[in-house]
Each structure stands twice: as structure tokens, then as C-alpha cells.
């Protein structure tokens, strides 16, 4: 084999290896879930909350052994700043909030070892749309369980922890106790 043909063979093998590597990596990227395609029955979709990761914090909480942060879009933040729901007014249509739950873990490198968010557990959403959700207090709900092993979300069910109905009215039963607060439990954390 001549030096020229050896170089061509090495170049061809390198190109083939590159194509194979791109196919493997590309396949992983293609097969990864786009969380914005997931939705609960009756149409409430993850995509309706696109960008929630960057919304301002409404409040933090701990319940059921989970750490949570509730964030809101500008519509709900402005309403809170105007005194809703304490002023007796309802939240306006278009108000949205997301509540992200994490399993707690100990921060071992910080003195005192505080509890901090570990693996994500789930995310829940609320949207005010008095026409679309007229029969559920004007609110639509969705809860999505997170699976860290597969990095995917799926609609929560009665088998979830905590158990959830898995349609857009899943929160009505629980939130009816705060009907006088326009079905919203979360207090706005003043700054």
C-alpha cells in the first residue's frame, strides 16, 4: 500500500468514526424528551408554561417532606403586588404559577449541613382562564412527575406521591378550601 492510499484509508476511517459518533450522540439528543410536548387530559400542557424556570419567586415552602418553590408569571406577580387575593379581588385571566418540588438532601460541604434541593420530584402548574375552566373555579391545574433516571416528565396520577387526579381539574378538590382566596393557597413573600 502506498503512503497516499494509507492516508486516504486513515482519513476515511476517521470520517466514518466521526459519523458514527455523531449518530450516537445525535440519537441521544433526538431521543431525549422535549418536556414541552407533555400534557394532561383535557389539554393543559407543559408548553403553556414555557419559560417558567425563569419566573420570579412567589414563595418557598416545605411540605410532605419535599422542598418547594412557587414561581409566577408577570400577570400573577403584578396581581399579588396589588394585594390579590387579600383585597378580595380575583386573580386575572392569564395568571400562571408553577410549583417545583425537590427531594431534600444535606449540603455536606457547608458548615451546619443545611437541607437543600436534591433530585427534582415533580412540578405542578396553575393557570387562570375563567372561560376555559369555568367549571373549576376559573383555574386549570396540571401535575407532572419527574423521573431523574430518564430525565422525563409524565402526568401525575392517583399512584403518584402525593396522589393526583390527572386532568386539568386535578387541583379543584384540594383548592376548594381556599375558594375565598380565589383557590390559591400560596402567600406572596414580601421583599
UniProtKB/TrEMBL annotation:
<keyword id="KW-0732">Signal</keyword>
<dbReference type="Pfam" id="PF16694">
    <property type="entry name" value="Cytochrome_P460"/>
</dbReference>
<dbReference type="InterPro" id="IPR032033">
    <property type="entry name" value="Cytochrome_P460"/>
</dbReference>
<protein>
    <submittedName>
        <fullName>Cytochrome P460</fullName>
    </submittedName>
</protein>
<feature type="domain" description="Cytochrome P460">
    <location>
        <begin position="50"/>
        <end position="186"/>
    </location>
</feature>
<feature type="signal peptide">
    <location>
        <begin position="1"/>
        <end position="23"/>
    </location>
</feature>
<dbReference type="InterPro" id="IPR038142">
    <property type="entry name" value="Cytochrome_P460_sp"/>
</dbReference>
Amino acid at each position: 500500500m502506498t503512503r497516499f492510499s494509507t492516508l486516504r484509508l486513515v482519513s476515511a476511517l476517521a470520517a466514518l468514526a466521526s459519523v458514527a459518533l455523531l449518530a450516537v450522540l445525535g440519537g441521544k439528543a433526538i431521543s431525549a424528551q422535549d418536556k414541552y410536548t407533555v400534557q394532561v387530559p383535557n389539554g393543559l400542557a407543559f408548553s403553556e408554561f414555557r419559560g417558567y424556570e425563569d419566573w420570579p419567586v412567589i414563595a418557598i415552602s416545605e411540605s410532605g417532606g419535599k422542598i418547594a418553590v412557587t414561581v409566577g408569571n408577570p400577570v400573577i406577580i403584578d396581581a399579588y403586588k396589588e394585594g390579590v387575593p387579600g383585597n378580595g379581588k380575583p386573580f386575572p385571566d392569564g395568571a400562571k404559577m408553577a410549583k417545583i418540588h425537590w427531594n431534600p438532601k444535606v449540603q455536606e460541604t457547608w458548615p451546619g449541613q443545611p437541607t437543600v434541593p436534591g433530585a427534582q420530584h415533580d412540578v405542578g402548574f396553575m393557570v387562570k382562564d375563567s372561560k376555559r375552566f369555568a367549571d373549576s373555579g376559573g383555574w386549570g391545574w396540571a401535575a407532572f412527575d419527574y423521573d431523574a433516571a430518564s430525565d422525563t416528565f409524565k402526568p401525575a396520577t392517583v399512584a403518584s406521591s402525593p396522589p393526583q387526579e390527572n386532568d386539568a381539574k386535578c387541583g379543584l378538590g384540594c383548592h376548594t378550601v381556599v375558594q375565598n382566596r380565589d383557590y390559591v393557597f400560596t402567600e406572596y413573600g414580601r421583599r
